[in-house]
Design a protein that fits this description.
This protein is an alpha+beta fold. The protein contains six helices and six strands, in the order βαβαααβαββαβ. Mean pLDDT is 86; it is low at 1-17.
Length: 168
Amino acid sequence: MQSEPVASRNADSRNGSGSSPTIDAVSLAIIEQLQEDGRRPYAAIGKAVGLSEAAVRQRVQKLLDQGVMQIVAVTDPLTVGLRRQAMVGIKVEGDLDPVADALTAMAECEYVVLTAGSFDLMVEIVCEDDDHMLEVINKRIRTLPGVRSTESFVYLKLKKQTYMWGTR
């Protein structure tokens, strides 16, 4: 497989805070292999992408060190007792960063993003039940200094969830 630069991707490229490492076609193929199965052996990945096991190990470590990817266990919230999920749109007065930082510190907030549009922030929350969700939204999010209003979008059924960003 030829190693030509494919794209520059990492968390910094999303928030504009720095330069991004260049990901070549071989590294992209390694990422695809790990997206299909994060426990796939380096030897199997090497065979699929045309590298030795040691070369794959080095590339994976470099991708991890650069923050290009993470290898994590992803749970199904329903199977671990978290039966309620919602996306919450938040309108903020003043500086967004203190509110975003406070939300980031909350265990129930799985996804926090500053946005352009109707809301200043979008936050995905995962809760045990309706009472827990009410407590998070009403007692913890709405009471943050700067929060002007919230709008909740409760998930009724999840139809698709993938983690294949950047490779397809």
